[in-house]
Specification:
Helix content is about 45%, strand content about 20%. By secondary structure, the chain is an alpha/beta fold. An eight-stranded mixed beta barrel has the order 1-2-4-5-6-7-8-9, surrounded by four helices. The N terminus is likely disordered. Bound molecules: ligand C2E and calcium ion (3 copies). One calcium ion (CA) binds next to loops. The site of one calcium ion has 4 residues, from strand 6.
Length: about 280
């Protein structure tokens, strides 16, 4: 290491120092953001492909930074996970999503009540109090447990300790449903289906992208849908952007879909307007 000493110093300047500085600044910013409630939710509709009706919403977090504007989740969630700040942020997302969904549901006939899907980070799943946090969000909002879906990525399930599995079962025992997000992108998707008590498969956008034009992609996607049916799981196709994809997926009996073809993630006001157009003044 001594021989490389000069090089090692070199890497700290200037770009490394700058990015380290940026990192520290952003960490301080993130702490302040939690205290000042700078986060917002967007809601993207999840649509029943056979009928076109909205069956649920996925809550997606945004950071409204006072100087830098709207920051997408992929630009701050990794840091939030590293610093543990994802725990208070994630709890806020969960509570706010349940509160808003319960509010909207109270204005709808009960047979049209929406589900709300919330993304969970591995760091949240590591916490022993997660089932209590979920239960409190349901109780305080009045959202029935079976209207809440917790989305887990395969990467999150890679580290499958016994406690993780027990925690997921405790959450399921509340009546909450579990979805595997980005299905098909991990190395052992099929193994997870056996090991974890999932109810819903979300087929990753990378499969859906090519479904209208690449026969192999269509075959794989239809195969995943059939697998879901055989296991009595709901299937959601992610990232539907055009009518060709939609018809292919609907023909393949995919139950649900979401994507820009239907709607982008919407602000609370825009979603309100989509759900209750008659209320417009
Ligand atoms: P995800 O859970 O796979 O969410 C879907 C992402 O795809 C969203 O990006 C959504 O806006 C985008 N999307 C939806 N339909 C389409 C489409 O038709 N075309 C394209 N190109 N994109 C589409 P977003 O909102 O930027 O979120 C990115 C990721 O950040 C999410 O991926 C999720 O992993 C994570 N995330 C978002 N909110 C939360 C949260 O509250 N907690 C945690 N832990 N992670 C979150
Ligand atoms: Ca998701
Ligand atoms: Ca996804
Ligand atoms: Ca295409």
């Amino acid at each position: 290491a001594k021989k490389k000493g000069k090089d090692q110093y070199a890497i700290f300047e200037p770009s490394m120092r700058e990015s380290f500085q940026k990192h520290l600044e952003m960490e301080a910013d993130l702490r302040r953001a939690v205290l000042r409630h700078e986060f917002q939710l967007r809601f993207q509709p999840i649509v029943r492909l056979a009928t076109g009706e909205i069956s649920g919403l996925e809550a997606l977090v945004r950071w409204q930074h006072p100087e830098r504007g709207m920051i997408p989740p992929l630009d701050f969630i990794p840091l939030a996970e590293e610093t543990g700040m994802i725990v208070p942020i994630g709890e806020w997302v969960l509570r706010e999503a349940c509160r808003q969904a319960a509010h909207w549901n109270r204005q709808r006939p009960e047979d049209q009540w929406l589900t709300v899907s919330v993304n969970l980070s591995a760091v949240q799943l590591d916490r022993t109090d997660l089932p209590d946090v979920v239960n409190a969000a349901l109780t305080d909002s009045g959202l029935p447990a079976h209207r809440l879906v917790i989305e887990l990525t395969e990467s999150l399930l890679v580290d499958h300790r016994q406690e993780t599995l027990e925690r997921l079962h405790a959450i399921k025992d509340l009546g909450v449903r579990l979805a595997i997000d980005d299905f098909g992108t991990g190395y052992s998707s099929l193994a997870y289906l056996r090991r974890f008590p999932v109810d819903i498969i979300k087929i990753d956008k990378s499969f859906v992208d090519d479904v209208g034009d690449v026969p192999a992609a269509a075959a794989l996607t239809l195969g995943i849908i059939q697998l879901g049916q055989a296991l009595q799981l709901s299937t959601v196709a992610e990232g539907i952007e055009d009518a060709g994809q939609l018809s292919e997926l609907a023909d393949g009996n995919c139950e649900l879909g979401q994507g820009y073809y239907f709607a982008e993630p919407l602000t609370t006001d825009a979603m309100q307007e989509l759900l209750f157009p008659a209320d417009k003044q």
